[in-house]
Amino acid sequence: QKEVEQDPGPLSVPEGAIVSLNCTYSNSAFQYFMWYRQYSRKGPELLMYTYSSGNKEDGRFTAQVDKSSKYISLFIRDSQPSDSATYLCAMLASGSRLTFGEGTQLTVNP
Amino acid sequence: ETGVTQTPRHLVMGMTNKKSLKCEQHLGHNAMYWYKQSAKKPLELMFVYNFKEQTENNSVPSRFSPECPNSSHLFLHLHTLQPEDSALYLCASSQQTGEGYTFGSGTRLTVV
């Protein structure tokens, strides 16, 4: 069983839609949860960083962590064509190294 | 720019060639990483360096040889590669191991 499971998609939505991206994990030691965005021909860039359970909002993006269910989500409101990218969840235990999901490829159509 | 610079951006090499990938970070970070990214696979960690010392080698074949002369520079020396080694090679850095990473744009490697 993979430590981190992420649906690879691809996911295609119309502009303005609400997008939900999800990951599940098995390691209960994970404490820090991140979402990276990777545009084509670029490296991943950190989008959201959360610690423990709860919600964190940044503009159109909301990261949600449910440690009891070992489930994290990234919501994108009013999605734009510029949001088209691959989104990777990542998580780590204290002092350890990042473990990444496979990435979900998102296309927002104008 | 992210503060992590990788060169070259693209590299095509034959199976008998020797080449090197370079990574430089201007963030004052102490940890540096090499990752391999292949299509439809999760990021694969290859090597971890912390304060110039290698702390992790994730069962990487010896045809990949890392070098970290100081905390700002990281190299990946390549020799006698196979076509299946074709991938995007990403360098990343963090203030310490166990924190979020900053990635470079990667080197797209094609082995012919």
Provide structural commentary.
- The complex is a heterodimer of chains A (110) and B (112).
- Chain A has strands at residues 4-6, 11-14, 19-25, 32-38, 45-51, 54-58, 61-66, 71-76, 85-92, 99-100, 104-109.
- In chain A, the strands form 2 sheets. In chain A, strands 2, 4, 5, 9, 10 and 11 form a 6-stranded mixed β-sheet that branches. Chain A has a 5-stranded antiparallel β-sheet with strand order 1-3-8-7-6, with no helix packed on it.
- Chain A is mainly β and 110 residues long.
- Chain B has strands at 4-7, 10-13, 18-25, 31-37, 44-50, 53-57, 64-70, 73-79, 87-94, 102-103, 107-111.
- In chain B, the strands form 2 sheets. In chain B, strands 2, 4, 5, 6, 9, 10 and 11 form a 7-stranded mixed β-sheet that branches. Chain B has a 4-stranded antiparallel β-sheet with strand order 1-3-8-7, with no helix packed on it.
- Chain B has no helices and 11 strands.
- Chain B is mostly beta strands and 112 residues long.
- The model of chain B has no long low-confidence stretch (mean pLDDT 92).
